[in-house]
Amino acid sequence: MILSPEKYMIPDKAMKPFIDEDEINDYLKKCHPTKEKVREIIQKSLGKNRLSLEDTAYLLNANEPEMIEEIKQGARELKKKIYGERIVLFAPLYVGNYCANNCAYCGFKASNKTVKRETLIDKDLIEEVEQLEDNGHKRLILVYGEHPKYDANFIAESVQTVYKVKKGMGEIRRVNINAAPFDIEGYKIIKDAGIGTYQVFQETYHNETFKKVHQSGKKRDYNWRLTALDRAQEALIDDVGIGVLFGLYKWRFEVMGLLRHVNHFEAVYNIGPHTISFPRIQNALDLDIDKSNLISDDDFTKLVAILRLAVPYTGMILTAREPANIRNEIMQFGVSQIDGGTNIQMKGYSKKEKEQQLDEEQFAINDDRSLEEVIQELLDQGFIPSFCTACYRLGRTGEHFMEFSIPGFIKRYCQPNAILTLSEYLEDYASPITKEKGYLLIDEKLKEMEEISLKKLLIEKLKLIKENERDLYF
Ligand code: SAM
Ligand code: SF4
């Protein structure tokens, strides 16, 4: 959506920030909840309303175990009520780890001379994608350091290369991006390559901490980063993802920062961000941070439940930075996407030796299960693993928003599409035991379907998949 200049102007240079630290701190100081208040706010969210900064501050200040359990229960209920049982699967793919910045927390920072720097082009990139396709992936997020080598044309070319790789039954149907901020012209070039979501994490919304941890390079400019996704919107990339790297500054402040960012998008573009990510700092080569803000598992799971309630319409992404037990708890709060079979080493997917080595990756991961293991576990827990890309293919932008806002959308589209993409996976990549578990779940879900005509269509499509037709969706 292009806005008239007199209403709101996004110049191609840093603009006035929309994060007001005093505003956030005032709310955090004054909002201390009673049990009744917590319940009232949870009900507001269950009514599908986004929470205000004030409501969220009350939840963030809830410390009694009973209140925290009610908040978590609220998030579980919201998930059940709105999102159902699907979990979308993706994999990150590191395209290049040259970086001109010096982020204190990142193993790829320029000052780390022991890191082997590589850029995947042509053959190397194709090999990685082929391996990911062989594992069963259909959705990738391409990740890049911030470096003059990785300009908009380079990113667009790598996206186009990925889409062209087709191995056996495999293909990548949606490519998302996590890369540095660009100007509007740059974003237009990247948009034309057919990307899904463009993610830029602010890392910390606290200006002083931001300056402290971004020691040199372009990333030192807080406002340039804060307005990155405004420029993306101006380039008509309306599918954007925000995030905080938890552990750099106080977590309550950061949740409020995320929510303020959401408010900003709603106010200016009439659409919120597509996804929110909440990575937690992991060990990295030469990690150089003040450890006093590292966040405990208890606070982390609580904050994810609060985020779910605060922005009930947004997709939430959980990554393999977290160990399986934390992933399992948080998934109950309505996470919409997780990665599976993750490897964040350069050329990591096609490598034979899979051992983690800190001098070869940006940070350490805690969940190195294969995609098949993750899928088996999801099936055991009653989730439907999904590789669906239908909304993106049909031009229905904001897949997670559709699920939330259109009554019946999940039953009519998301669930059947999840079943179809799961069936493709079972036919093409699964071991006999996963296949058996997968089809048992599909049978169960078919039995539960109430709309007979839709069920009939779905059964017909499933039959076509068994006859080797692919890429069928509603
Ligand atoms: N270079 C781009 C940038 O900085 O925006 C690409 C992103 S970086 C490769 C992906 C994300 O990883 C960062 O935005 C940051 O939040 C996260 N990250 C960096 N170091 C990390 C660490 N030690 N532990 C966990 N996440 C980390
Ligand atoms: Fe570079 Fe991104 Fe790592 Fe910072 S977080 S050093 S910008 S790759």
Feature tags:
single chain; eight-stranded parallel β-barrel; binds iron/sulfur cluster; about 475 residues; alpha/beta; binds S-adenosylmethionine; disordered N terminus
> What coarse outline follows from CA principal-axis ratios?
globular
Radius of gyration: 22 Å
Question: N-to-C terminal Cα separation, in Å?
Answer: 27 Å
β-sheet strand percentage: 5-15%
Give start-end ranges of low-pLDDT stretches: 1-8
Backbone structural class: alpha/beta
Physical arrangement of strands within the biggest beta sheet = 1-2-3-4-5-6-7-8
Based on DSSP secondary structure assignment, what is the total number of beta strands? 9
What is the helix/strand order?
A: HHHHEHEHEHEHHHEHEHEHEHEHHHHH
Task: Summarize this entry quickly.
This protein has 474 residues and is α/β, with parallel strands linked by helices. The chain has an eight-stranded parallel beta barrel with strand order 1-2-3-4-5-6-7-8, surrounded by five helices.
Explain the layout of strands and helices.
Blueprint (H helix, E strand, L loop, with lengths): L20 H10 L4 H12 L6 H8 L4 H19 L2 E11 L25 H14 L3 E6 L7 H13 L9 E5 L5 H9 L5 E2 L7 H7 L8 H5 L1 H7 L5 E4 L7 H19 L5 E3 L19 H14 L4 E4 L5 H8 L5 E3 L31 H10 L3 E3 L3 H4 L5 H7 L3 H20 L3 H17 L3 H15 L8
The structure holds S-adenosylmethionine and iron/sulfur cluster.
Structure notes:
Helix 7 (184-192) links the parallel strand 3 (174-178) and strand 4. With 474 residues, the chain is α/β, with parallel strands linked by helices. The radius of gyration is 22 Å and the shape is globular. Helix 4 (65-83) packs across helix 12. 50% of the residues are buried. The protein is built from 19 helices and nine strands. An eight-stranded parallel beta barrel has the order 1-2-3-4-5-6-7-8, surrounded by five helices. Mean pLDDT is 92; it is low at 1-8.
